[in-house]
Predict the 3D structure of the following.
Amino acid sequence: MDAEEIEKAVEQRRVWLDKQLDVAAARLAVRLVGDPVNTFDMRSAGAVAQDGDNGDVWLRVVVEDADYEPVCRWDGNVVANSILGVDKPIVLRWYDWRHAEEYLWGRRLRGEVMTLAPGETVAPGGVLRDDPMLSDSWWHELGWSLSALSDTPMQWHNELGVVDTTIRDVRFHFGFTLSEKAFADVNWTTAHADLHWGNLRRPQLCILDWESWRPAFAGYDLATLYCNSVLHEPTARRIGETPELQTRSGQLALLSAICRYLSVIGEGSDIDLIEGRLRAHGANILSRVRG
């Protein structure tokens, strides 16, 4: 498709998603009061809504897309209600249905009513460009939340083949083949797995978007946040110097996160801004963890 066709397709998807918000609002008995907010990939949309005695809530609608599975788990947000000790929204109720009209006919959709996150998003595009203006207490809360999350038990079926994927991506982006032995002593933890500045709120910490939480290399959440901070050196330094990222597992987590973001360079997101820094840092890490 040429640029004009892509623009028309994106607009068609946006209008369709807005209509699905209306459908979800009716089925979940809430009243939309805010303007719709769409994700970059036009896979989901959300808006502030009124929910009777619960007051303001967030209504989200998402459309099933096989290209995102199993990275984005259909029940991720709902099952995340079981996580304790983490500052995050709670899903109050939800509803699934199949779309019965021609455009995206048969696709499954889900509407979720969840508690409204306080404050504002630190960096809506995900990548930090300047001082996030966060208090020391905010950083402490983040540390406590990630620690509580890491202690959350979760079954591990290796759905994503993380080790194999990292080996393959390192070969593609850096031209070097890591041995599986390089991962023999890696530590694993339960992670949010999509921790960037678009999923963090201020001035009170709240962590959004729990579709992807899963086991990962220990330190992976800090690794993804580091990647999204490299344009603001003081913040990147603060995250990069955390003890979790000084370990071998933390370095492999950083390498894995860097490869993940390099894989989406050129798609028009803010990630395009950090390619050079990611490649340089990845090469530096690789020189130390080869095995």
The two ends are 43 Å apart (CA to CA). The mean pLDDT is 93.
